[in-house]
Design goal:
It holds the Pfam family SecE. By secondary structure, the protein is mainly alpha-helical. The protein has a domain of 26 residues. It has two helices and no strands.
Length: 64
């Protein structure tokens, strides 16, 4: 494989950077809201699971 000179490398990076398509403000806001909703739902789910398992373990420890 041929080595690339630093100048050529910089040109290649600039060429690739021009191809980047940034999301619009609306897409970013929509995605952030979706992530916040999913994070809240998962937090509540794991809180419920943890509470149930905690009660089961507490009940099992009373049997000893």
């Amino acid at each position: 494989m041929a080595k690339t000179s630093p100048g050529e490398f910089v040109r290649q990076v600039q060429t690739e950077a021009r191809k980047v398509v940034w999301p619009s403000r609306q897409e970013t806001v929509t995605t952030a809201i979706f992530v916040a909703i999913m994070m809240t739902m998962l937090a509540l789910f794991f809180l419920g699971v943890d509470t149930i398992f905690g009660k089961i373990v507490a009940w099992l420890l009373t049997l000893v």
